[in-house]
Amino acid sequence: QVQLVESGGGLVQPGGSLRLSCAVSRSIFSISAMGWYRQAPGKERDLVAHITSSGSTNYADSVKGRFTISRDNAKNTVYLQMNSLKPEDTAVYYCNTRPPGVHLWGKGTPVTVSS
Fold first, then answer.
1. From 111's CA, which of 6, 21, 57, 94 has a CA 20 to 30 Å away?
2. Three-class SS state of 75
3. Whole-angstrom Cα distance, residue 73 to residue 63?
4. Dihedral angle sign, alpha carbons of residues 44, 5, 74, 63
């Protein structure tokens, strides 16, 4: 059974914005901190941001001040608002628990930042 589904990626120009969404099964969402991760070609998958069940957030230095993670408990959804996008933000973005569940990795949603 699919428990995490990412959406919202796409092609955007440098300086533009995107909002990613991740629909999460209630059983996971209700008890887990959630994170957004990304993997660029040829690189390891890295944590971008995470949010606890109580709403506390943390960000990688590379995205701090540009990205905002949030969660909507009524919709069982976690979001990543990405502003001032840079070409180096190009990657496949994944959501997962924090720490991640190995069995939960999905296909992600690709983000390409290019002019």
1. 57
2. coil
3. 24
4. positive
Q: Which residues pair with 67 in a beta bridge?
A: 82
Integer CA distances (angstroms), 1 to 40, 45, 61, 104, 107, in order: 27, 23, 34, 10, 14
Place of tokens 């540009």: 66
How confident is the model over 51-107, as pLDDT tens digits? 999 999 999 999 999 999 999 999 999 999 999 999 999 999 999 999 999 999 999
**CB contact at 8 A, 46 and 38:** yes
CA distance 88 to 90: 5
CA–CA separation, 26 vs 19, rounded Å? 21
User: Which SS3 state, helix, strand or coil, does residue 105 take?
Assistant: coil
Contact 72, 55 (CB under 8 A): no
pLDDT digits (tens, 9 = 90+) for 4-54: 999 999 999 999 999 999 999 999 988 889 999 999 999 999 999 999 999
